[in-house]
Design a protein that fits this description.
147 residues; mainly alpha; elongated
């Protein structure tokens, strides 16, 4: 249910027949994002979000950048708070594999690597992934003597 409900935050789902019902369920799934006082405001905002004019979502635009626009954040404060919290959740096979790798490295019988070193490895690994580059490509030089 969480995955379906989260899919309703995509700007292209706005106005879809199911998106309002999915958005209404969101505060009940991750319950620690909105306060009791914000729930009524959230309900009003999701209804307004379905019909009001908002900036166009461009092809290839990142959803976090779209939700980060001032025009949206000011107009839908509670909805934006919910969306930002949901978009900041890590998920997917790489996160799962990261926990598996960390469990292999940081073990009570293997004191060879500490958490800071492992964290550095992960930062570099994900940096290369974000740039769609391998370590070999990064360090490849045209002129080894001058670069």
């Amino acid at each position: 249910m969480l995955t379906k409900s989260v899919s309703a935050i995509h700007p292209n789902m706005r106005g879809h027949s199911l998106s309002l019902s999915y958005l209404r369920k969101l505060p009940n799934l991750p319950t620690n994002i909105l306060t009791e006082n914000e729930l009524d405001q959230y309900d009003l905002e999701i209804r307004k979000y379905q019909t009001d004019s908002v900036p166009e979502f461009e092809e290839g635009e990142r959803i976090d950048n779209w939700w980060g626009m001032d025009a949206i954040a000011r107009k839908f404060t509670c909805l934006t708070k919910m969306v930002r919290a949901l978009l900041s959740c890590f998920h997917g096979p790489q996160v799962e594999s990261s926990f598996n790798i960390m469990n292999d490295i940081i073990h009570n019988k293997s004191g060879q690597i500490n958490i800071a070193t492992y964290s550095s490895i992960q930062v570099i690994k994900y940096g290369f992934k974000a740039e769609n580059m391998t370590a070999v490509q990064f360090f490849k030089k045209k002129d080894y003597m001058r670069e």
